[in-house]
Write a structure and sequence with these properties.
The structure holds two protein chains of two kinds.
Chain A lengths: L17 H4 L4 E3 L14 E6 L16 H8 L4 E3 L6 E3 L2 E6 L5 E6 L13 H12 L17 H5 L9 E5 L2 E5 L7 H4 L10 H7 L13 E7 L3 E6 L13 E6 L3 H9 L5 E2 L8 H6 L1 H4 L2 E5 L2 E7 L9 H10 L2 H7 L4 E3 L22 H10 L7 E7 L4 H14 L3 E7 L1 H8 L7 E3 L5 E2 L10 H4 L17 H11 L7 H18 L2 E12 L4 E2 L19 E2 L4
Parallel strand pairs in A: 2-11, 2-12, 16-17, 16-18
Antiparallel strand pairs in A: 1-5, 3-4, 5-6, 6-8, 7-8, 9-10, 10-11, 13-20, 14-18, 14-19, 14-20, 15-20, 21-22
Helix pairs in contact in A: 10-12, 16-17
Chain B lengths: L1 H28 L4 H6 L5 H10 L6 H13 L13 H36 L4 H15 L2 H15 L11 H31 L2 H9 L3 H18 L2 H19 L4 H10 L3 H29 L7
Classes of the chains: A alpha+beta, B mainly alpha.
Amino acid sequence: MKRSFGKRLLASTVAASALALMLGMTSVRAEDTIDPNAKQGGAITITYKDDVATLDPAIGYDWQNWSMIKSLFDGLMDYEPGTTNLKPDLAESYEISPDGKTFTFKLRHGVKFHNGREMTADDVKYSLDRVTNPKTQSPGAGFFGSIKGYDDVAAGKAETLSGVTVVDPYTVKFELTRPDATFLHVMAINFSHVVPKEEVEKYGADFGKHPVGTGAFKLAEWTLGQRIVFERNPDYWHKGLPHLDKITFEIGQEPIVALLRLQKGEIDVPGDGIPPAKFQEVMADPEQKARVVEGGQLHTGYVTMNTTMAPFDNVKVRQAVNMALNKARIIQIINGRAVPANQPLPPSMPGYDKDYKGYPYDVAKAKALLAEAGHPDGFDTQLFVMNTDPNPRIAQAIQQDLAAIGIKASIQSLAQANVIAAGGDKAGAPMIWSGGMAWIADFPDPSNFYGPILGCAGAVPGGWNWSWYCNKDLDAKAAEADSVVDPAKAVERDKMWSAIYDKVMEDAPWAPVFNEQRFTMKSARMGGADNLYVDPVHIPINYDNVYVKDVQ
Amino acid sequence: MIAYLGRRLIQSLLILLGVSLITFALLYLLPADPVRQIAGRSATPQTVENIRQQLGLDQPFIVQYWHYLTKLVSGDLGRSYIQRSEVTELIVSRLPASLLLMAGAILCELLIGLTMGLIAAVKRGTATDQTLMVASFVGVSAPQFVVGLLLLYVFAVRLSWFPIGGYGTWRHLVLPSLTMGILGAGWYARMMRSSMIDVLRQDYVRTARAKGLARRAILFRHALPNAILPVIAMIGIDIGIFMGGIVVVESVFGWPGIGQLAWQAIQRVDIPIIMGVTLVSAFAIVLGNLLADIIAPFIDPRIKLR
């Protein structure tokens, strides 16, 4: 999250959810197939605009470092490259108890940290104790809330999670306070990646600058603010990976400069993507277009309406806004880099309701609804927006659409942190365009779009539920859905979530606008399947599995 | 002299204290909550409160400011909220790049500015003079962001004379120095012109001319050294303008200095870094002004320090 949390995501395409994988309730790792065409060796260069804050898996949560951390560290679970299909990673297999409250993982033998020591179950437990300890100040601590003993650790009353038990050096058992259908995803998220205690203690708060993990690459060089160099970990437990010998990340390069350098063949992937101003130019050139890979992402851009503020406390007004927006025209502003949205969940997310039609674009009907609500001549309001392109231009399009039904919205264009602050203040912002801060799932599960942004838990000062929408009945239904761990009921659980979001749309606290697509550009020498370049988990690309064609 | 220096040092310290107080207060009043930024969207209210307590952000303003000051005295600028590293380390690692850029920029602005000013003064009232003065006006007014991108496009992308952004060799240094230097060059051209015109009117120049000295000798041996000194003395004051410029120029060229650090920190509300860079810049400006004032009497004996 952080500055670029709007861009980061953990999930995308592919309908197979965790639950599909859990069908047998126990799973044994199938070895990854390695691309037979892949060549070994070579070096690539990636650029980023912003500094890499930290490479500590307990802390890093931004666009640049998310997938760097994935290449330095490993978790118990991971996803098959280029997909959202869960698979065991540092775990060899796992077992879920029938009540869905106990997860037991068997670890693979002989996995070594970069310092040469073997990784064991004690390290798994230590890593989770560390990430949940308030002293670590991890932005991801909240993901582990279902583990028994979490509350005591979070409150500073205990140093260790009582729900995590080391059974033997290669077995670790998790007890949960409630059945949690999302737990395997949580074991794949960076925050649960395994770190060696001795190195963390050696570097203390600077561990993030001296990362030591079990991953495919090790840190070779870090010149603050300039570059980071990864080199191949020759002892990586996953034989045959990674393909590249070296990756150089050059930091502090504007996206437009990165694109020029790519065109001159100086770099291989511009990490921040194609700058919007250059998008059409690139796509109009067949040679360049051939090197662009397009993919979906679990993102929704939406307008929130503060349900506690008049006139948005009237559901008819909120429905009218939903009908007033010309989504196709708004998408043109971002050069068609999105698809129109009619519900909170993006299309590739399990639980997306294909049959739901949403609110039609109907100005006459919107006006009629406003009149019914007692505002035949409209009203004055404010639309908050983050001040980086293209968001102010999108806000202007929304402003025009609203004006067509008589709503005069003045645009408040502010820095991201200030918009977030206004949204978290109950009397702060009547309407917010979420662009640049929009919700992108942390993992591919429908629950991820509810709790903090539509549930009562998020409708608190400083929270992320900017509509201040709180429906206790739906909260109960959400809890019920998340307790369905039984894989046989996976489809039923998705349906429960669909129903929850349909009900949300009836109350219309949001006007969903579009779901963004992702575009990655690469140099001609880069090889590997297309889905590695729009990998839903490894952003922007899957460093472990890509290769270059001009070696050997 | 000593008394003057002592007084100026105390003044400088007071200025720095004022800057720290005002910046700290402005950042404190910012509606954005740094703890929320650190904690992220998945954090429970309890996690948020824990972090707030550990950072001491639940304390009243005066207490927070006092803590900051006491640490500052021992040279500790705190730890970045987002990067979680020592601010001192971050600034120190980026300072050489900014100083190098500053040196390059000073060289550029002096070379360009003094040459332009000299020619304009000699050709006073001619079309050359007017053209140069319009050019200097454009140089002063042009936004550095635009100048930087233009230079980048023409000399790096089209002509490939220089690398497209980055850091490392002298070739990387040329375009950003030029971008920064063009602004100062405009000022220096104007100052140099009036200073030179002033000197050329002096009696000793007339005497030299009457003696029948060559025009070139008069200009470079007699007039130039006298005209250039008051202009050079302005370099100290320039540092203030540089500090503003590096934020933009370093971002355009991907130059890893403290300007880029500040820009990223501002976007992320990373308060300790913003404070740190502001204080370091204020220190540089105060120091620059102090040096300019101390050097002045050596250059022009009419000025006395009191």
